[in-house]
């Protein structure tokens, strides 16, 4: 079902919290995001910026209304725990709308207002805006530049400006945590991120599937644009191979099937992992021999990790 702006309700009122997770390698991107949230907020907006610091180190000086720390666990960064903690901090700050935005992303000028409008029309839904991957050197402070570069990732629905479309059951697997929002009331009653996931991968698809089980709607929000700032990466992500195997096994134990099969199949083609009919496993020395694969630029259309 698509809902357009012609039948809009007034935007949701009250405080909005923008929640970002960060560690030292993404600090410059985070600072750009925090400045953008302040830049695009209207004078009468009540927006708080909450940063959850994920690193072993203490957080540096950050221009945000709240900074909390969730140190790494035994297996790496605790992304699921950090999102849950960030949401708890947002509720404690009196937020009525929670916006989760990846530290690599900057909001477009209308992202927050579109999430507010969509939340008024879909107060029980988890809302997902489109994300554009930027090339290196793009000026994220200029609205006209961002508008000219807007090209949302093609693997996800992108409704027309000012409209929303409720996701089908099959589309819950397309959820990703780069940019999404939900009301405080929905968060209070929705599933939490599973803190059994540590390190890279799987926790966002697990969250989405948990939403589907309890029939929390997912809605695609046209015009709620976010922009992923350039950084180098690897494809497939060799640096996360161990995380993908471990988190994938945790996901499979819950849901009876593996996530991130696109990455696993790429690793298998390189001889680093194998499928024995019931589980994926690393093939010894083969996995480490590929870990030095050269980085490729991320560009505008990276593969979806959970497909």
Secondary structure layout:
Blueprint: E1 2-3, E2 15-22, H1 27-40, E3 47-53, E4 66-69, H2 79-92, E5 95-101, E6 105-107, H3 111-121, E7 126-128, E8 131-133, H4 143-149, E9 164-166, E10 179-183, H5 184-189, H6 203-213, E11 218-221, E12 226-228, E13 232-233, H7 241-255, H8 261-269, E14 273-275, E15 280-282, H9 285-289, E16 296-297
Parallel strand pairs: 2-3, 2-5, 3-4, 7-11, 8-12
Antiparallel strand pairs: 1-9, 5-10, 6-12, 7-10, 9-11, 13-16, 14-15
Order of helices and strands: EEHEEHEEHEEHEEHHEEEHHEEHE
What coarse outline follows from CA principal-axis ratios?
globular
Number of helices: 9
What value does the Rg take, in angstroms? Answer: 19 Å
Share of helix, binned: 25-40%
> What value does the average pLDDT take?
90
Strand content is 15-25%
| Class from helix and strand fractions | alpha/beta
Uncertain runs: 291-307
What's the number of extended β-strand segments?
Answer: 16
| Major sheet strand order | 1-9-11-7-10-5-2-3-4
Largest sheet descriptor = 9 strands, mixed
- The separation of the N and C termini measures 24 Å
Outline of the structure:
By secondary structure, the protein is an alpha/beta fold. The protein has 9 helices and 16 strands.
Please provide a written account of the structure.
42% of the residues are buried. The longest helix has 15 residues, at 241-255. It contains nine helices and 16 strands. The chain is 30% helix and 20% strand. It is α/β, with parallel strands linked by helices. The two termini are 24 Å apart. Helix 1 (27-40) links the parallel strand 2 and strand 3 (47-53). The model is unreliable at 291-307 (pLDDT under 50). Strands 1-9-11-7-10-5-2-3-4 form a nine-stranded mixed β-sheet, sandwiched between helices. It has a three-stranded mixed β-sheet with strand order 6-12-8. It has a two-stranded antiparallel sheet with strand order 13-16.
């Amino acid at each position: 079902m698509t809902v357009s702006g012609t039948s809009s309700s007034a935007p949701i009122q009250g405080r909005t919290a923008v929640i970002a997770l960060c560690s030292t390698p993404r600090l410059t991107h985070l600072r750009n995001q925090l400045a953008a949230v302040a830049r695009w907020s209207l004078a009468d907006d009540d927006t708080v910026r909450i940063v959850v610091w994920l690193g072993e180190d203490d957080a540096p000086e950050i221009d945000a209304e709240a900074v909390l720390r969730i140190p790494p666990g035994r297996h790496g960064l605790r992304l699921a725990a950090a999102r849950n903690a960030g949401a708890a901090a947002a509720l404690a700050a009196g937020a009525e709308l929670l916006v989760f935005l990846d530290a690599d992303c900057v909001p477009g000028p209308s992202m927050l207002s579109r999430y507010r409008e969509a939340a008024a029309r879909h107060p029980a839904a988890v809302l997902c805006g489109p994300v554009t991957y930027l090339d290196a050197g793009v000026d994220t402070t200029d609205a006209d530049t961002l508008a000219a570069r807007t090209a949302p990732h093609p693997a996800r629905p992108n409704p027309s400006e000012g409209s929303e479309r409720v996701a089908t059951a099959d589309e819950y697997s397309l959820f990703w945590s780069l940019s999404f929002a939900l009301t405080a009331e929905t968060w209070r009653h929705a599933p939490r991120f599973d803190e059994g996931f540590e390190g890279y991968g799987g926790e966002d698809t697990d969250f989405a599937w948990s939403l589907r089980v309890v029939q929390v709607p997912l809605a695609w929000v046209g015009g709620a644009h976010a922009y992923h700032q350039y950084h180098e990466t690897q494809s497939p992500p060799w640096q996360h191979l161990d995380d993908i195997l471990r988190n994938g096994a945790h996901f499979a134990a819950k849901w009876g099937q593996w996530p991130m099969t696109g990455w696993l199949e790429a690793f298998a083609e390189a001889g680093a992992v194998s499928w024995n009919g019931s589980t994926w496993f690393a093939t010894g020395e083969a996995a480490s021999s590929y870990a030095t694969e050269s980085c490729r630029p991320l560009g505008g259309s990276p593969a979806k990790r959970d497909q």
